[in-house]
Design goal:
Elements (H helix, E strand, L loop, with lengths): L7 E15 L14 E14 L2 E14 L4 E17 L3 H30 L12 H15 L10 E4 L1
Antiparallel strand pairs: 1-4, 2-3, 2-5, 3-4
Helix pairs in contact: 1-2
Length: 162
């Protein structure tokens, strides 16, 4: 009789996979004093790298727009990624780990990267509000069930506007 092994969760690496900054109306945009409207879109994606090693990518697209003039001040897109070793976790529990726990770990790094890039671009810092990834995950699951009762749980892509 074998003892059930303890679940293992290890953060192997956290890194910026891709980073993009656009300031389409520079230099004139720096002369405008209007407060921008900031829009955040989030998406998560996960993939098995090798056996019990997974990559999770949390993508944020932040767009600051001058509402009155309908001009984009800046657009930042960050793909914050992490490599996680997940072992001895029941199959039904892997998906919430990848969809809730891993994005919660990655989000503070993504938030810091967005703020740093925006500041270095010459704009006031953008501090992203915390995100409830459990609610996002549950919403995605409900949407998948509504779209098709036989929806594949392998699809781990969620685009969420905040």
């Amino acid at each position: 009789m074998t003892e059930q092994q303890q679940p293992v969760f290890v953060i192997e690496k956290i890194y910026v996979k891709d980073l993009s900054l656009e300031i389409p109306n520079a230099p004139h945009i720096f002369l405008d004093r209007e407060a921008p409207e900031v829009n955040l879109q989030l998406a998560t994606k996960d993939a098995v790298i090798d056996g019990d090693i997974h990559e999770v990518v949390l993508t944020a697209t932040v767009t600051a727009r001058l509402k009155e003039k309908d001009k984009v001040m800046f657009l930042v897109e960050v793909h914050q990624a992490g490599i996680f070793r997940i072992r001895n976790v029941p199959g039904d529990d892997i998906e919430p780990v990848l969809g809730i726990l891993c994005p919660n770990i990655l989000f503070p790094y993504l938030r810091e990267t967005v703020s740093d890039v925006v500041t270095r671009a010459g704009f006031p810092a953008v501090i992203l509000n915390p995100v409830n990834f459990e609610a996002v995950y549950q919403q995605k699951k409900q949407q998948q069930q509504a779209d098709s009762p036989a929806a594949s749980p392998d699809s781990a892509d969620s685009g969420t506007k905040h």
